[in-house]
Structure formats: structure tokens, C-alpha cells
Specification:
Distance between the termini: 5 Å
CATH class of the largest domain: Alpha Beta
Strand content: 25-35%
CATH topology of the largest domain: Aminopeptidase
Number of domains: 2
Shape: globular
Radius of gyration: 22 Å
Helix content: 25-40%
Oligomer: single chain
CATH architecture of the largest domain: 3-Layer(aba) Sandwich
Amino acid sequence: MNIRTIEDTDYERLESAGGYLRQYGANIRRWIEKGYITPDDCYLFEAAGKSSRAAMDESSGEVAGGVCFSDDTAEAREILDFALADVKTPGAAQILKKAAYMAAKPGTKTIGYNLYNDTGQYHDILELFRQAGFEIAQEKLSYSYERAHPPARADGLVFRSVAEVGEECFIDAVRDVTVGTLDKLMADDAHRLGGDKAAREYVESLKEIDFNPDWWRLGYRSLSDHGPSDPGDHVPSSPSGPGDHVPSGTSPRHRSHGLSDHDPNDQQLVGLIIPQELGEAIGGINYVGVLPQHRGHGYGAMLLTEGTCILHDNGMRKIIADIDAANHPLAAALEQVGYTFSMEESVLLYKLAPPGHCRFNLLFSI
């Protein structure tokens, strides 16, 4: 197979190819139009033996597949979408590895891909990525909300958006909640990069997916409402895992965020929720967290309900939440809100060879 970046004339060929190749073409065109990625991030696989120009004049069978990438962090790129007409095509693993190196930017150390077990080809695709040098970095579970009506909101929390409190508030929260997280990859990033840098890069990576500052919210409770959590329990955060991420809202630095019109001593940060638009009528809960001293009192479900309602009220009819398979508290909260288990998911990771140590010939056409 040959590999090259996408061209305007390729969309019609992908449309004619049918199957998931058609969906791949529609996806990358939408993401390019929205500015999430550029044509240089998208690649087309073609059958060997013909030049690109000659192949464009041939039948749709000449299109063998494609892959597109986005930035995750400064050191990591993510495969946004992957399509192959025949997973067992000879040379597919080598062309995938070649694409990873072609997509790498200066400083890129890893390429990641979230593989969902939603087709009968899951094991074949997993084996293909393994042959290309990818390893399983994390096992996840995918949940979805597809009910006709949103869950009922409950009283107890006051929500403030990023538009109200500012991005630095969220970055501080993300940094603090990652300490002791149950999410394996987030814990690894925090250890490797340091809490501040990992949090900032994680927020930036989420903004590249979708950023609506009115949707990203922090949840507060009043210390005078005599709620289920002990108001005097101001312990340092000792968080665990997405779904029970725990931004430390009790330090003076955090107490002041978003509370200028209220008595900061009467407001306590309980957690955060980041809902995002993923596609046409499809949304996702990409971040949710509860402070450790407030766990076990239903605040996680309240945060999830808020995020789910935001997405549902804005036309999302399928809402996805992917969690670490070890995050049992979040799984229970999702089911309480009305989410159902959809499928298993494997997070695959490829570690690029350092410059000067790669023996892979990027000019070689398989």
C-alpha cells in the first residue's frame, strides 16, 4: 500500500467506497471544517502499483483505508479515526506504523488510539495494532445515555461555568484531582509531567475536542445548608479516578474562584463536570469529579445529571461516558443516573523511537 495526505478529490472516492470508509471521509471532512484538525493530519491508504493521480481515476476499490490524527498533549498524538477496507490486508501493520511516524511532530513521543469493541472485527483490529507495535495501556468501559428525556435535576448544588470562573480554576482543579486518580493514564501523565503541566495539557486536549465555556461547570454546596457532608471536614484532597476526581476547593486559592458575589466561607467546591459535543447529536461526559470528603452522598450523580441535562437540552440524543475499568464508583453513579453499559474499550499506545534510532523507512512504499 501507499500512503499520502488527504486531498479534496478523495472525499468522493471515500463516499463511493462505502462501508466505514464512507464514514471516515465524512468524519474527517467535518473535523477539518470545524478546525479540529487539518488535511495534513489525515492520511489515505491506496493499493500499491499506481501513482496517486492514476489511482484517482480508477475505481473506488483502489482506496484501501485511512487514518487521521490530532494533538493530545505536547508529547502525544491521538488517532481520531481509522478505517481499512480489509483488516487482513498484507502490509497493513507496516503502513499503520509508517503513518504514526509521518504524523509525529517534533517532541511527539507516543501515538494513542481508543479501540472500541463495537464490531465483529475488534480482535482482528487489535491484533493489527499489536503487529504495528501498539500496546494496551488501559482497559476501559463505555457507557451511554439514550433515553428520550434527560434525568431529573435535584437541588443541592450551585453550578458556575468556565465563562464565570475562568479557565485557571479548572486547571487548578484538574491538577489537584489527578493526585491518586483511579485513571491509569492520567496518573501516569501526572507522574511523568508533573501535576501542573499534566493538568494544563489535559485541559488543552479537551478544548481541542470541543470547548463550550458555558457547559464546563464547577459544582458548589453551601456550608450553611447542613447537607450530608460534614462542613468542617476540610482535609487535603486525596482523590481517585475520573468520575471521582476531586478538585481541592477548600484551600484559600480555590475558595475564591467564582465566588466574588458570595461569601467564600459559605461556599465549598464539591466537584466538576465537563460535557462535550462529539458529533451530530452525540455528546460525551469527558470529565467529572467529586471531592473525597463529599463522596458517598450522591454528589457524583448530581454532577453527572447536570452534564447529561446540558447535552440533552442542546440536542444530544446519545451521550457517551468512557471510564477506567477499575473505576467502580463512577460506574455505579452512571447507572444511577440512567446510563447503560455499551462495550469494552482498549486504549492502545505506540512509543515512538527517539530521533536517530528509528529504522523504519518513511520513504518505503509497502
